[in-house]
Backbone:
């Protein structure tokens, strides 16, 4: 329940493929790659100002993972808390056109989609490790 | 007539967020793609001009994962008219004892529950289109 | 039983509790005023029982926590007057039922207890004598992204994170903010029965989220006089207001002075919780 002192926040991404990829990448980080080492923040709660999400992002380094170049998660952290410790834009990894494709239900995930998830998660872990090394 | 907006909360931490998201995608992508559309909640609250323009004064249905009602509150604050508001736990009593999955994946029971939630929203859409609020 | 009654047992063929559910229902159906409802037939053809359900109230007997009979009744939108869970009755008698279908002293005892529960006239919830405080002030501390709150005064806690607050010889019992944050969204509240007598540290019902079931360990001894009926439709009140609107049980106290010796007051619980939270994070 209490997690660790580096936060990761994904965009909510209902409108495009990039949103699904960013969510799954963050889930992969918390479940497989860095289990028990990250605190995931909920973007809707963060923006609503409820919970301790904003307070956490003020105190501790937080990485934003966004599904498209609008970078809602990154902008939300910068607006309500402080500068992000790191930022990933899925569109830069898989291409803008791909990221803006129709939203994807988890029922229809293909191996290619999972490859996108793996790439995104790996990049996020790189940033995570850099932050950890500095702590 | 512009499409009805159906907006989930999409909370990442719990299965209810995924249930909200998947049930809404069923409605907007499969069951009623001509009558409704979804919008990204993050765009709504960060004040994306295009999205705010689509919501302001428009009929909206929200599906939240929990009683914090992030989607409902955010849409209302942006000027959307939340005609129907649901949260995933509203219908959970008949599903007690089932395992629905996690924030990453849904089980078979989870998909059935998502389907049930989607059908509830389909009925909402029919009501709205028939002019009954 | 003076009014007519319908009884719907579960259809559990694969374990003892399901068999007992059927046997209780058959025992009840010996009375002319009781109509036994077959769950399979009800599912296939609800109209078969329409008249009986209109004329009488419905008692549902679930074998276990899967609650198939309750779910069937809910799916068919039937009004349920009373629900009994055979496994829970067995647990309260400290009897393990297991899978094997059997007929012995233990199973007879469970059958009689379930019948007794159904036949006894339900105690009415009395008008509350509890005087709610005008406002409650809190101390808070944060750990990671979590902020925990504890009232500043007038609440007492056991080390199972359940609280009691007292008004005369009445009290209300609930769970702390720490519990509701751990459990996340509370989905079901299973309260005790009105009229139940209990000792300090006895189980006083439970609350359930998608993550876990939490047994309420009573901080006091007494008799149940009321339960927070609103939580049946709005269990999230326990999350939103664990110390105020999310109260669970109202009790008439037996001897609070004695109970208090084993409880933490607010400042002591605050320190206790800070240590507990810090230890979990190690």
Residues:
């Amino acid at each position: 329940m209490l997690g660790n002192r580096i936060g990761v926040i994904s965009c909510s991404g209902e409108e495009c493929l990039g949103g699904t990829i960013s969510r799954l990448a963050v889930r992969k980080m918390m479940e497989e790659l860095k289990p028990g080492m990250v605190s995931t923040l909920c973007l809707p709660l963060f923006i609503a100002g409820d919970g301790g999400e904003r307070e956490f992002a003020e105190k501790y380094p937080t990485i934003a993972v966004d599904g498209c170049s609008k970078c809602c998660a990154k902008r939300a952290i910068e607006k309500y808390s402080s500068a992000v410790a790191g930022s990933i834009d899925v569109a830069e990894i898989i291409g803008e056109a791909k990221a803006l494709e129709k939203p994807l239900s988890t029922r229809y995930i293909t191996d290619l989609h999972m490859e996108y998830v793996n790439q995104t998660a790996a990049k996020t872990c790189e940033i995570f490790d850099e932050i950890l090394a500095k702590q | 007539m512009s499409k009805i907006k159906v907006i989930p909360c999409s909370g990442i931490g719990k299965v209810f967020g995924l249930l909200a998201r998947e049930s809404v995608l069923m409605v907007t992508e499969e069951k009623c793609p001509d009558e409704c559309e979804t919008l990204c909640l993050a765009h709504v609250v960060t004040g994306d001009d295009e999205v705010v323009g689509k919501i302001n004064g428009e009929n909206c249905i929200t599906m939240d994962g929990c009683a914090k009602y992030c989607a409902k509150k955010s849409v209302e604050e942006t000027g959307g008219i939340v005609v129907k508001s649901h949260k995933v736990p509203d219908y959970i009593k008949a599903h007690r004892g089932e395992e629905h999955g996690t924030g990453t994946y849904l089980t078979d029971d989870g998909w059935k529950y998502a389907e049930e939630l989607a059908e509830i929203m389909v009925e909402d859409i029919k009501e709205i289109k028939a002019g009954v609020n | 039983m003076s009014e007519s009654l319908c009884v719907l047992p579960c259809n559990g063929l694969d374990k003892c509790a399901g068999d007992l559910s059927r046997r209780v229902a058959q025992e009840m159906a010996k009375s002319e005023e009781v109509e036994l409802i077959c769950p399979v037939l009800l599912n296939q053809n609800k109209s078969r029982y329409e008249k009986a359900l209109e004329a009488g109230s419905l008692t549902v007997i679930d074998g276990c926590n899967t609650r198939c009979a309750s779910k069937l009744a809910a799916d068919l939108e039937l009004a349920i007057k009373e629900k009994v869970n055979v496994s829970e009755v067995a647990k309260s008698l400290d009897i393990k039922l297991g899978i094997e279908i059997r007929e012995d002293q233990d199973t007879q005892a469970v059958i009689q207890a379930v019948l007794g529960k159904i036949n006894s006239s339900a105690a009415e919830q009395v008008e509350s004598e509890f005087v709610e405080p005008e406002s409650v002030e809190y101390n808070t501390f944060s750990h990671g992204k979590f902020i925990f709150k504890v009232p500043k005064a007038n609440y007492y806690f056991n080390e199972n994170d359940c609280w009691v607050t007292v008004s005369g010889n009445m009290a209300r019992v609930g769970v702390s903010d720490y519990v509701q944050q751990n459990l996340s969204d509370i989905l079901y509240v299973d309260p005790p029965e009105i009229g139940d007598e209990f000792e300090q540290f006895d189980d006083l019902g439970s609350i359930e989220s998608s993550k876990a079931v939490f047994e309420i360990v009573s901080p006091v001894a007494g008799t149940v006089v009321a339960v927070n009926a609103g939580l049946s439709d709005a269990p999230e009140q326990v999350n939103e207001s664990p110390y105020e609107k999310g109260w669970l049980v109202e009790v008439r106290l037996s001897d609070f002075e004695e109970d208090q010796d084993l409880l933490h007051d607010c400042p002591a619980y605050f320190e206790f919780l800070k240590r507990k939270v810090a230890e979990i994070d190690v």
In short: Chain C has two domains: 5-119, 138-280. The longest strand of chain C covers residues 203-209.
